[in-house]
């Protein structure tokens, strides 16, 4: 049975913490799904941790759809959320609807996420009215990194804190089923979580949020260009990979790989006929 948005909203009411992870490929998505994680985000962090861009801004619909389809093929139970790339929902409501629909029809996602608060609520409401669940995303919104002046903590002044609360309320009002709070002081994120009825999913927003999201490549210690403060490395897969790759290379060079276990035999009499 597929997780649906009502179950996610009920989790907040029951006080059950909501777990979300990003995925970008079939194999990882399948492992995450089999671990029982209810929300899988095909984040536009794809651009940085998989495609090697220096921000999420260059990511295109074509790239997002390609990876969303791969993730969807690996998932049986979790709700798959496609992250709408930069400028695919800003220009007009028509554009936002067309691109959100592509995530559902072509990407096989069940929901979309977009960045912004009051400034995007007309788009959020229009997408929700077409029957597509929307997750909001406020605080440090990486697609606006140039406007924000860098990867900085958001909502520290009274004015900025009021604006974030207003944004969260506007997204709830527009029909979003949940909202990501990124890089916001813990007390403010807790307050927002108490003031709105939809679940908040934190990343660098403290333990008072209704759920948490991590970028899988950060969590596994696979992406090592930089480690954001909000990331916890539960493993160091980059180190494991590099050790294994060196071991393989050594074995090929010294002839100890492959062995019979990785090889195929045949009737020697056939060889004699050649
Ligand atoms: O793109 C992404 O992975 C995200 C999460 C960090 C929420 O937006």
Question: What does this molecule look like?
Answer:
There is one protein chain. The protein has helices at 5-14, 26-34, 46-49, 61-74, 93-105, 121-129, 145-148, 158-174, 186-195, 216-219, 237-254, 268-273, and strands spanning 18-22, 39-42, 79-83, 111-113, 134-139, 178-182, 200-203, 211-214. With 274 residues, the protein is an alpha/beta fold. The chain folds into two domains: 5-236, TIM Barrel (Alpha-Beta Barrel); 240-273, no CATH class. The chain has an eight-stranded parallel β-barrel with strand order 1-2-3-4-5-6-7-8, surrounded by seven helices. Strand 6 (178-182), helix 9 and strand 7 form a beta-alpha-beta unit. Helix 2 (26-34) packs across helix 4 and helix 5 (93-105) crosses helix 6 (121-129). It is elongated, with a radius of gyration of 22 Å. The mean pLDDT is 97. Bound molecules: 3-methyl-2-oxobutanoic acid (KIV). The site of 3-methyl-2-oxobutanoic acid (KIV) has 11 residues, from loops.
Short summary:
The protein has helices at 5-14, 26-34, 46-49, 61-74, 93-105, 121-129, 145-148, 158-174, 186-195, 216-219, 237-254, 268-273, and strands at residues 18-22, 39-42, 79-83, 111-113, 134-139, 178-182, 200-203, 211-214. The chain has 274 residues and is an alpha/beta fold. The mean pLDDT is 97.
């Amino acid at each position: 049975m597929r997780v649906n948005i009502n179950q996610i909203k009920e989790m907040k009411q029951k006080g059950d913490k909501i777990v979300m992870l990003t995925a970008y490929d079939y194999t990882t998505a399948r492992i995450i799904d089999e671990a029982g994680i209810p929300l899988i985000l095909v984040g536009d962090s794809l651009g940085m941790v998989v495609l090697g861009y220096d921000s999420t801004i260059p990511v295109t619909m074509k790239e997002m759809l390609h990876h969303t389809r791969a993730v969807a093929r690996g998932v049986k139970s979790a709700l798959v959320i496609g992250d709408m790339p930069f400028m695919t929902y800003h220009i007009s409501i028509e554009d936002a609807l067309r691109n959100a629909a592509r995530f559902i029809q072509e990407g096989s996602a069940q929901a979309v996420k977009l960045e912004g608060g009051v400034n995007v609520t007309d788009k959020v409401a229009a997408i929700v009215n077409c029957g597509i669940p929307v997750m909001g995303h406020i605080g440090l919104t990486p697609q606006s990194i140039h406007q924000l002046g860098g990867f900085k903590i958001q909502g520290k002044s009274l004015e900025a804190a009021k604006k974030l609360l207003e944004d969260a309320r506007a997204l709830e009002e527009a029909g979003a089923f949940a909202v990501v709070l990124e890089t916001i002081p813990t007390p403010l994120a807790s307050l927002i979580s108490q003031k709105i009825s939809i679940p908040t999913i934190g990343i660098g927003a403290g333990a008072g949020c209704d759920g948490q999201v991590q970028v899988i490549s950060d969590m596994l210690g696979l992406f090592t260009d930089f480690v954001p403060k909000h990331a916890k490395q539960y493993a160091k897969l980059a180190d494991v990979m590099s050790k294994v790759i060196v071991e393989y290379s050594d074995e090929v060079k010294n002839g100890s790989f492959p062995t019979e276990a990785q090889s195929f035999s045949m009737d020697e009499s056939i060889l004699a006929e050649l």
